[in-house]
Amino acid sequence: MLDAATRAAVQDLLLRTTGLRFDEPGVVERLVEAAQQKTVALLEDAQRRALANGRTVVQAMDLALLPGLSRTLAELRPIFLKEEIHRVLHGLAELPFSGQLDEEVKELVPLLVGTLVVVLGRTVRGIGLPGALPTEERIRLLASPPSDRPAESDIWRAVEVVGLWF
Protein backbone atom coordinates (compact mmCIF):
# COMPACT_ATOMS: atom_id res chain seq x y z
CA MET A 1 0.00 0.00 0.00
CA LEU A 2 1.33 3.43 -0.90
CA ASP A 3 1.12 6.38 1.45
CA ALA A 4 -0.68 9.49 0.23
CA ALA A 5 2.51 11.46 -0.54
CA THR A 6 4.02 8.62 -2.58
CA ARG A 7 0.76 8.07 -4.46
CA ALA A 8 0.53 11.81 -5.23
CA ALA A 9 4.15 11.93 -6.47
CA VAL A 10 3.62 8.92 -8.75
CA GLN A 11 0.33 10.36 -10.04
CA ASP A 12 2.10 13.64 -10.83
CA LEU A 13 4.92 11.78 -12.61
CA LEU A 14 2.39 9.84 -14.67
CA LEU A 15 0.39 12.94 -15.54
CA ARG A 16 3.56 14.72 -16.74
CA THR A 17 4.82 11.73 -18.76
CA THR A 18 1.55 10.31 -20.16
CA GLY A 19 -1.04 13.08 -19.99
CA LEU A 20 -3.38 10.71 -18.12
CA ARG A 21 -4.83 11.05 -14.62
CA PHE A 22 -4.21 7.81 -12.76
CA ASP A 23 -6.53 8.59 -9.87
CA GLU A 24 -9.00 5.70 -9.83
CA PRO A 25 -8.77 3.67 -6.58
CA GLY A 26 -5.98 1.07 -6.66
CA VAL A 27 -4.67 2.01 -10.11
CA VAL A 28 -1.38 3.61 -9.04
CA GLU A 29 -0.77 0.81 -6.55
CA ARG A 30 -1.21 -1.80 -9.28
CA LEU A 31 1.12 0.09 -11.63
CA VAL A 32 3.80 0.38 -8.96
CA GLU A 33 3.40 -3.29 -7.98
CA ALA A 34 3.78 -4.37 -11.61
CA ALA A 35 6.85 -2.14 -12.10
CA GLN A 36 8.41 -3.61 -8.97
CA GLN A 37 7.71 -7.17 -10.14
CA LYS A 38 9.23 -6.46 -13.56
CA THR A 39 12.30 -4.91 -11.90
CA VAL A 40 12.76 -8.01 -9.74
CA ALA A 41 12.44 -10.17 -12.88
CA LEU A 42 15.17 -8.09 -14.57
CA LEU A 43 17.41 -8.44 -11.51
CA GLU A 44 16.83 -12.20 -11.26
CA ASP A 45 17.71 -12.57 -14.94
CA ALA A 46 20.84 -10.47 -14.39
CA GLN A 47 21.78 -12.62 -11.41
CA ARG A 48 21.56 -15.77 -13.55
CA ARG A 49 23.75 -14.07 -16.15
CA ALA A 50 26.32 -13.08 -13.50
CA LEU A 51 26.41 -16.60 -12.07
CA ALA A 52 26.84 -18.06 -15.57
CA ASN A 53 29.89 -15.81 -15.91
CA GLY A 54 31.35 -16.97 -12.59
CA ARG A 55 30.35 -13.92 -10.51
CA THR A 56 28.07 -13.64 -7.49
CA VAL A 57 27.62 -9.87 -7.73
CA VAL A 58 25.32 -8.45 -10.42
CA GLN A 59 26.98 -5.77 -12.51
CA ALA A 60 25.35 -3.33 -14.95
CA MET A 61 26.52 -5.42 -17.90
CA ASP A 62 24.39 -8.29 -16.58
CA LEU A 63 21.16 -6.32 -16.97
CA ALA A 64 19.46 -7.15 -20.26
CA LEU A 65 17.75 -3.83 -20.94
CA LEU A 66 16.00 -3.73 -24.27
CA PRO A 67 16.81 -0.68 -26.43
CA GLY A 68 13.40 0.91 -25.87
CA LEU A 69 13.70 0.57 -22.11
CA SER A 70 17.24 1.97 -22.19
CA ARG A 71 16.11 4.98 -24.26
CA THR A 72 13.18 5.65 -21.95
CA LEU A 73 15.44 5.42 -18.89
CA ALA A 74 17.86 7.91 -20.47
CA GLU A 75 14.97 10.24 -21.35
CA LEU A 76 13.54 10.13 -17.82
CA ARG A 77 16.80 10.20 -15.84
CA PRO A 78 16.82 14.03 -15.47
CA ILE A 79 13.27 13.93 -14.07
CA PHE A 80 14.11 11.04 -11.73
CA LEU A 81 17.16 12.78 -10.29
CA LYS A 82 15.07 15.66 -8.93
CA GLU A 83 15.01 15.44 -5.16
CA GLU A 84 11.32 14.71 -4.46
CA ILE A 85 10.73 11.99 -7.06
CA HIS A 86 14.21 10.54 -6.45
CA ARG A 87 13.35 10.03 -2.78
CA VAL A 88 10.00 8.43 -3.73
CA LEU A 89 11.66 6.07 -6.22
CA HIS A 90 14.21 4.97 -3.63
CA GLY A 91 11.31 4.03 -1.36
CA LEU A 92 9.65 2.07 -4.17
CA ALA A 93 12.94 0.29 -4.92
CA GLU A 94 12.86 -1.72 -1.69
CA LEU A 95 12.31 -5.02 -3.48
CA PRO A 96 12.18 -8.70 -2.51
CA PHE A 97 15.51 -9.50 -4.17
CA SER A 98 18.22 -11.21 -2.17
CA GLY A 99 21.04 -11.19 -4.73
CA GLN A 100 24.13 -9.03 -4.46
CA LEU A 101 24.28 -5.88 -6.58
CA ASP A 102 27.27 -3.68 -7.27
CA GLU A 103 26.96 0.04 -6.49
CA GLU A 104 26.13 1.04 -10.05
CA VAL A 105 23.21 -1.39 -10.19
CA LYS A 106 22.03 -0.35 -6.71
CA GLU A 107 21.80 3.24 -8.00
CA LEU A 108 20.03 2.07 -11.15
CA VAL A 109 17.25 0.08 -9.41
CA PRO A 110 15.11 3.10 -8.37
CA LEU A 111 15.46 4.51 -11.90
CA LEU A 112 14.36 1.17 -13.36
CA VAL A 113 11.28 1.08 -11.12
CA GLY A 114 10.39 4.63 -12.16
CA THR A 115 11.01 3.91 -15.83
CA LEU A 116 8.79 0.85 -15.71
CA VAL A 117 6.02 2.82 -13.99
CA VAL A 118 6.14 5.33 -16.85
CA VAL A 119 6.39 2.61 -19.52
CA LEU A 120 3.29 0.95 -18.07
CA GLY A 121 1.49 4.31 -18.00
CA ARG A 122 2.44 5.05 -21.60
CA THR A 123 1.32 1.56 -22.56
CA VAL A 124 -2.09 2.26 -21.01
CA ARG A 125 -2.26 5.44 -23.09
CA GLY A 126 -1.18 3.56 -26.20
CA ILE A 127 -3.61 0.66 -25.88
CA GLY A 128 -6.61 2.73 -24.93
CA LEU A 129 -8.33 1.80 -28.19
CA PRO A 130 -11.92 0.58 -27.74
CA GLY A 131 -11.54 -2.02 -30.51
CA ALA A 132 -9.28 -4.14 -28.31
CA LEU A 133 -11.89 -4.47 -25.57
CA PRO A 134 -14.63 -7.05 -25.01
CA THR A 135 -17.96 -6.02 -26.59
CA GLU A 136 -19.70 -5.09 -23.31
CA GLU A 137 -16.81 -2.87 -22.19
CA ARG A 138 -16.59 -1.28 -25.66
CA ILE A 139 -20.30 -0.40 -25.54
CA ARG A 140 -19.88 1.07 -22.04
CA LEU A 141 -16.92 3.16 -23.18
CA LEU A 142 -18.62 4.37 -26.33
CA ALA A 143 -21.67 5.43 -24.30
CA SER A 144 -19.58 7.35 -21.76
CA PRO A 145 -17.86 10.70 -22.23
CA PRO A 146 -14.12 10.67 -23.01
CA SER A 147 -11.95 10.27 -19.94
CA ASP A 148 -8.34 10.93 -19.04
CA ARG A 149 -8.63 8.66 -15.97
CA PRO A 150 -7.50 5.05 -16.53
CA ALA A 151 -9.43 2.30 -14.77
CA GLU A 152 -7.98 -0.85 -13.20
CA SER A 153 -8.84 -2.88 -16.33
CA ASP A 154 -6.57 -0.50 -18.32
CA ILE A 155 -3.73 -1.29 -15.92
CA TRP A 156 -4.22 -5.05 -16.27
CA ARG A 157 -4.05 -4.77 -20.07
CA ALA A 158 -0.88 -2.67 -19.82
CA VAL A 159 0.73 -5.21 -17.49
CA GLU A 160 -0.04 -7.97 -19.97
CA VAL A 161 1.48 -5.98 -22.86
CA VAL A 162 4.61 -5.03 -20.90
CA GLY A 163 4.94 -8.68 -19.87
CA LEU A 164 5.42 -9.52 -23.53
CA TRP A 165 8.50 -7.28 -23.65
CA PHE A 166 10.40 -9.23 -21.01
List keywords for this structure.
166 residues; 7 helices; Histone, subunit A; mainly alpha
Give a structural overview:
There is one protein chain. The protein is an all-alpha fold and 166 residues long. It has a single domain (4-165), classed as Histone, subunit A, CATH 1.10.20.10. Helix content is 67%, strand content 2%. The chain is built from seven helices and two strands. It has helices spanning 4-18, 27-52, 67-80, 83-92, 103-126, 135-143, 152-165; strands at 57-58, 100-101. The chain has a two-stranded parallel sheet. α1 packs across α5.
Overall shape: it is globular
What is the average of the pLDDT values?
87
Query: What's the name of the CATH homologous superfamily?
Result: Histone, subunit A
Rg from alpha-carbon coordinates = 17 Å
Q: How many structural domains in the coordinates?
A: 1
Helical coverage, percent range: 55-70%
- Uncertain segments: none
- Report the strand count: 2
CATH hierarchy, class: Mainly Alpha
CATH architectural type: Orthogonal Bundle
Q: What structural class results from the helix and strand content?
A: mainly alpha
Q: What composes the largest sheet?
A: 2 strands, parallel
Write down the secondary-structure element order.
HHEHHEHHH
**Percentage of β-strand residues:** under 5%
CATH topology description: Histone, subunit A
Our count of helices gives 7
Calculate the terminal CA-CA distance, rounded to whole Å. 25 Å
Strand order of the largest sheet: 1-2
